[in-house]
Amino acid sequence: MAASIALLLFGGFFAMLFVSTGDLQLGRPGFGHILLDGWQELILVFFCVATVWAVVFVRHVQYCTIGGAVSQWYFKRAQLGSFPVAVALGTTLRYHTGSVALGSLLITALKFVRIVFLFLRRRTRFLGKRCAPKCGSRFARALCCYVECCLACFEKCLRALCRYAYTQLMISGHPFCKSAAEAFTLLTANLAGAATLRVIAAAYLALGKLLVAAACGTVGALILLSESPFKEELYSIWPPVVAIVVIALAVSMIFFGVYNMTIDTIFVCVCIEKDRKQLGLPTDGSAEVAVLLRDPDVIEGQPRRAGSLEQMVCAESTSGTRTARTTLPLSSPDTPRDADLQI
């Protein structure tokens, strides 16, 4: 959150600095406007898009980091290190930067499409005041409102899908598009559970935010009413109490956002575990689960265990009438050991 605010301030400062390079055209006394040529306007739009993209990218890196840390805790709790969040952040930046950039780019592009339709709606409203109703301005405004509403709903769905896709990405290691498809399959297979979880989680998170803000405001009001020099010098306690409530609400939104992403990650992990139970595969946080997570083809092939896991892992792939069996000894240097497995 702090990084996002810093990027917004940085982008706003340099945008105003760039606008100041335009030509100042004076109007009536005390008024004027800055004129930018075509290239300057294009560069300004590109800079605004890049700034919003950077802000969304930082937020999605946070989602991916939380998803990786929580999924590692869920499936590999015995091998969890001292700094799981730092490890998940390093994995995200090292292996999944492109996937996070793609997801954030989709959200950014959708935001600017909504801005374009908002501009068109305001433009048609302005033209409707100057033109006759037969010009079709009312129909154009209604169409823009309809498209903008559909885009807003689609953006919310895409944002939710990205959150689930990042969790699936950190578990399987697949690219963004394949992880999004897998997450969408999980959601459609567990749609009732996802909807119920979202409603209950949203209610509890909203209640928690309100309780934190109310508690901070109450404590602040009691301090202002009972402690010196506030009780003698303050004319009214309402301005500082309102400021305390607003700040507490903002901080609680940051912390409860982490809980929200944690809930989504655990839900995805539970769905994956349920699918493994249906396939007869192990579901605990053992080394075999880690191997299955690293090799999705093994999951699809439903391998049969031959001997102990410390000796070999067998993977079967059937093509037509021929069956190929590959035996991977875990003691060989080409096979990832349990300590080297990443989720």
Description:
The structure is a single chain. Mean pLDDT is 76; it is low at 285-343. The chain folds into 3 domains: 2-188, no CATH class; 190-279; 284-343, no CATH class. It has 11 helices and 4 strands, in the order H-E-E-H-H-H-H-H-H-H-H-H-H-E-E. The protein has helices at residues 2-19, 38-75, 84-95, 97-130, 137-172, 176-189, 191-226, 230-233, 238-279, 287-294, 296-301; strands at 23-26, 32-35, 313-319, 322-328. It is mainly alpha-helical and 343 residues long. The radius of gyration is 27 Å and the shape is globular.
List keywords for this structure.
343 residues; two-stranded antiparallel sheet; 4 strands; 72% helix; globular; disordered C terminus
Biggest sheet strand line-up: 1-2
Count of folded domains: 3
Average pLDDT over all residues: 76
Helix content: over 70%
Number of helices: 11
Strand residue percentage: 5-15%
Q: Quick one: how many beta strands? A: 4
Shape: globular
The first-to-last residue Cα distance is: 26 Å
Query: For the CA atoms, what is the radius of gyration?
Result: 27 Å
Supply the helix-strand structural class.
Answer: mainly alpha
**Order of SSEs:** HEEHHHHHHHHHHEE
Residue runs with pLDDT of under 50 for 5 or more positions = 285-343
* Largest sheet report: 2 strands, antiparallel
